[in-house]
Request: fold
Amino acid sequence: MEGITLEEMRYPMKTVIIYAHPSEKSFCHAVKEACVQQLREMGHEFYIRDLYAMNFQPVLYEDNYSQFYQNKLPEDIAAEQEYLGWAEHLILIYPTWWVSMPAILKGYIDKVLTNGFAFRFVEDSAEGLLNGKKAYIFQTTGQAQKLLTSKQLTSSVETITDLGIMKYCGIETMTHKFFYSVPYVDQEEREVMLNEVKEIVQGI
Ligand SMILES: Cc1cc2nc3c(=O)[nH]c(=O)nc-3n(C[C@H](O)[C@H](O)[C@H](O)COP(=O)(O)O)c2cc1C
Reply:
């Protein structure tokens, strides 16, 4: 590895986990714990933004809405932007709710990925401002894989999230991993899934 010192190879990566699930009994919670364990083993620096624990207020009201366009931000949103600005890697963990993400996470995206921070308008298009950052998405589902894929329900979710949101802001989605039929799988299958989580995080 010419030109890269051993120290640089060991450079601890900066990761932010954005976690959106209200229950500690959920599989998403187990996924978050698996990520944390793996990141610790790898010596990565990381922060967790646990949106329910933070009581994050997701609704973009008029005051924030005007600020969205004026680029004057409330303090809590500016703090979230600092986390995201600092991160090289983003791990998103959430369940599928109505073929989408929970409202609290959608609201986080509405309020935090602002014009001037995450993107800027260029003539009739937009330019991402978070280039170089990478996303790893873990999304659980209640329905079975064959039911969802046969109706393009997972591919449409990928288009919206990975392209419409992440790529729009310059963030490359490295993995969008769906864990299917989560309420119906046994413990053994859950362990297999959690090992997959650790392998993906190991690849960061
Ligand atoms: C409000 C709500 C909406 C849901 N909508 C969907 C859906 O559109 N598609 C689906 O596959 N599962 C849906 N589910 C089931 C959840 O996705 C499933 O229970 C969850 O992913 C399991 O993971 P968890 O243990 O981490 O919650 C929904 C559940 C809730 C509470």
Notes: The two ends are 18 Å apart (CA to CA).
